[in-house]
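Slide 14.
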Amino acid sequence: MNCDYCDKETDDLQELNDAMACDDCYSNRKTCHHCDGEFHPDDVEYIGDGRYACEECRGQYEECHGCSYIDHYDNMHAARGHYFCSTCHEDRFIDCYECGAQIDMEVDHYVETGYGDILCEECRYSDEEDIIHEWDYKPRAEYYTFTKKTPDTLFMGIELETEFGPDCSVSSVLDKLSGSSYYYLKHDGSLEYGVEIVSHPATFEWLVSEFDKNWKPVLNLRTKGLKSYTPGTCGIHIHMSKSAFSPYHLYKFQKFFFTNKKFIQMIAQRDVQRWASLGEDAEKYLVAKAAGKTTSDKYTAVNISGGPTVEIRIFRGSLKERSFKKNYEFCHALYKYTKQESAMMLTGERFLAFVRENKKTYPNLLEFMEDKYSEEKYVTNTITEKKWTHYSPFSGYMEPVAYIPRWDISLGVTEIDLTSPVSV
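Slide 15: predicted structure.
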């Protein structure tokens, strides 16, 4: 007689799964891990860990989407159109504490409350809605100052964009941020999953004096998983009182950005071309903006379209104290420097000299600039200025005026008052 499996002729045959097998085929038989039936090796599939499944039972086995382990579907967990073994399912999925929805911790947004409860994205927003306002929320401004507020007082407001990192305890962060009246929280469309921290206006002196009370606790939240520098999506915007500028001062302030672009890039610590474009290097455009004749181009380095403020949009987000302080010190120092400096002399080198003369006022800015600044690298790119001329009785012909009472404008503006505050 012949073996039904290998066709070997032999008188010694044994029954194997409704067929007759020779000694060799019978001794190599395999047992199905699920039904315990015995089968010739050709009639089973190896499924790992020394296990085999017969053809009928193999259809009831699934491969784990996480680790590729194969097991009977009774021992697997179905989730998001896939099967997972118990270990992978436990490591990857959890139920929302509020609504019971299944959360895939590898792909879904979720938060952990201060009590260790996990909330899905929908419940997360319902939990935050009383704390984080919509992007267009704008409360009545509260002014923080040690002296009496006057129309020409320079106030500074700070917008710090942050992201909740993957290990961030969002609820505990929001608990820390919600206890201050000096700033409030807003959603921002440029962020992936984070919050914008917006301060009320304050004088530079108040900001410096009260830093440890107001901003230092915010910056320390990086230890809780809050991020600002590394995601690349965050920036710092600083608003300055427009009424503290005359048109001529505002012209010079803007001009510094336009004529020292590489220097500004160094200060900003990021590429500013998208959200803080330095715009076209056009003298007439600058003068028109300073005169209040055009407020277009919101996304420029110096945005004057935001009502009563001059908004500086160049800075990369940061939760490090030196970098954060450097940014508002730069804005205040540039305000002071451009107020006293000639429009013909606005260079990074002369600004650095000004900061050195005031090193006690701007210590973080000075430290940063002396570490990063190179006169050769950050060369000034100039634009042409036009002075009014007058007849000189000494030479008998037209000469440039030594001072600049007006600027030549040809965008429908005949002249601007260089002493009065900018109208809003």
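Speaker note: Confidence is low (pLDDT under 50) at residues 378-424.
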